[in-house]
Amino acid sequence: MTPEQVSKLFQEKVQLASSTIETCEGIRVEFLGKNGYIAVLMQQLGGMPKEQRGEFGARVNSIKREIEEILTQLKKQHEANSLSERLESEQVDITMPARKVPIGALHPISQAMQDMHAIASHMGFMQAQGPEIEDDYHNFGALNIPEDHPAKQMQDTFYCTVGNLQRLLRTHTSAVQIRHLPQHTPPVKLFSMGRVFRVEYDATHTPMFHQMEGIYVDRQVSMAQLKGFLETFLALFFGTKVEIRLRPSYFPFTEPSAEVDVRCDRSKPGQISIGSGNDWLEILGCGLIHPNVLRNVGIDPTQYQGFAFGLGIERFAMLKYGISDLRYLYEGDMRRYINLAV
Length: 342
Prior knowledge:
Elements: H1 3-16, H2 21-32, H3 37-44, H4 50-89, H5 108-122, E1 126-127, E2 133-134, H6 136-139, E3 159-162, E4 165-169, H7 174-180, E5 188-197, E6 208-218, H8 223-238, E7 244-251, E8 254-265, E9 273-274, E10 279-289, H9 291-296, E11 305-312, H10 313-321, H11 334-338
Parallel strand pairs: 1-5
Antiparallel strand pairs: 2-4, 3-4, 5-6, 6-11, 7-8, 8-9, 8-10, 10-11
Helix pairs in contact: 1-4, 2-4, 5-10
């Protein structure tokens, strides 16, 4: 077979069977493959006279280049056609609304802490922080808690040893004020938030939970100021006007001391609505800072007074977001949190 015959045969094959990339690949193997027509022509060179080899080889190489160019063009054309067909069949309607992408949300406790931080900061309070592993003095002694107080027993407090020193996991954030008040001259507005630890576990208590504590120390601080502050703070947190009442109570670190109740509605089973109704719900503790506590931090109680309040952040989150069991906050079940719309 001559080079011209191979070229003619190639043209016929291309015209008859070049509709797909696969057929083009078959033609390439048939003509340019290891045992293809071009390879057969090259093998003929060995049996030709020397003077004919140059001219014959040039003709074979010319036809080979022609075949390669045609096949390359056909391949590109088929690829372009295939892409156009795929784009046509997979066309996207860009005018359709996009699908809503699931996004994360803050944990209810984190959201409650952010809200409290924003409210307290707006009302002029500065955040203070302290260690979670405390000593007996800062956690109990300086707060006017006597040695025989039940809270100091092993069944209520987690004790630990750090080196040769006995330490404990703080039972309240009140210890923070003992560390920071000596560093500030009144008037002072401080609040602290963080984890605290107590030996208890049920539907409304966990061994680890979060507290917020706030104090205000200045001349002539009164219970009236404390009540006004709490009414404003609670209204901003719950997003509604809140009616409160103060019931006399006892805390070692405040005198007088009070429990704060808020008006609520419990008419619907399993639900508590803050701000209206005929019921009352205890929500936090407060009072005027005890003179002994002021003395322990270097403040003269005859010149300065202060108020303090403390609340459980989990309890506030449960009331705001309608969570019935405190333990739900620590299960990590995202299905519960998604429905909270936090």
